Amino acid sequence: MEQIPFVSSAPNTLGIELELQLINPRSFDLTAAADELLAQMANHPIADRVKPEITRSMIELNSSVHEHPMGLLAEMREMRDALCEAADAVGISVAGGGAHPFMRWQERAISDSPRFQYLAEMYGYLARQFTVFGQHIHLGVPSGDAAVRMVRSLSPYVPHFIALSASSPYYEGVDTLFSCCRLNAVSSFPLAGHLPADVTDWYRFEAHMAQLRASGLAESIKDLYWDIRPKPEFGTVEIRVCDTPLTVERACQLAAFAQALAVLVSREPEPAQTAWLAYRSNHFQACRFGLQGSYVTPDGQRLRLIDHLRSLFQRLMPIADELGTGDILAALRDESIRNGNDARWLRSQFHRVRDLPLVVESMARIWRGERDTSSTAAEVPRRRIRATSEPVLGVQALATPEAGVTPGWRPDRLH
Fold this sequence. Notes:
By secondary structure, the protein is an alpha+beta fold. The strands form 4 sheets. Strands 1, 2, 3, 4, 5, 10 and 11 form a 7-stranded antiparallel β-sheet that branches. It is built from 15 helices and 13 strands. The protein has helices at residues 34-40, 69-90, 114-123, 125-129, 144-154, 158-165, 182-186, 202-214, 248-266, 279-289, 305-323, 326-339, 342-353, 356-367, 395-398, and strands at 14-23, 50-52, 58-62, 93-95, 134-140, 170-171, 174-175, 192-193, 225-226, 228-231, 236-243, 294-296, 302-304. Mean pLDDT is 90; it is low at 373-383 and 394-415.
């Protein structure tokens, strides 16, 4: 059996990747401008950390390795500003969010790289439909055994990451009824899911990969679209379930949450095998209902996810104080419990302006650091923002780069 070398990393170090939307500033649809943006940034000091993604309407930012989330935040703000400056130069905008609210997957162009072209050939329309945008969080671990243990220990908290980061309620002009619809696209791939429950150490992980290779099911760990997976060449555990937040501030708060949680679970026993029983149901509940979803604990208790999250924050705050991240974690806790996630903010925006292109314009403005708190922040706690699966605009009319967008468009009704 072939061994998979694992590069040791310092525990509690972290880094993030952010997949971002490239926006046409006239129609607010996605635009296939990744090549132009990469060329514009070719001589910039951060050029090696800005990468193409599977379609040309996407770009990826990669941080360096950090010990503290405040250093990460400073770096991400610098990278955001540099990216926005380059985007301005080529006449496009950039936005966060887990899915574009009204793009059409049929119009996406696959990036010109051997791996992306292979994926398009293998997976057909799923490759273009994979124009969704996630945040990956990397946590440093010292060994392969430690990585497997960390993956297993973090797995019961996958719903918490999904709900806190959810920012994809709209897709192809429809309110999907989900807080996070992005993971439905990820789940379409045959090797999506989670670490098998019987993989308990690095030797068993190597054996599992050997079986996949021998059966022709996977060539490398890159083919595993797991919610959390080891990244042996980086020496990390990679959390992959988060939607890209609307701001770099929220992205770094989530990284601080992951760092504190990694310390917490390293001090506790591994979850019992029963933790896997409710895994898929908990995953669905967090995607569908966000913080208001149901959650079944590893010991079988059923409660609201937001209630479990409150108690989790209480356990995490002493660790955050040890790490010097108490303020960052408290900000995430307070904002999430008071105002909800970015999906709730996006629905609130739509209910205010009733125009998805204007929502996308707000997403691009917020990404630049221009969040407007005057319009909706005070409303969110005081009224229920209802979801609807009805189309909220003419998808064909809007999701075409050359089509004219009528700024004054209003839907006949919301529900």
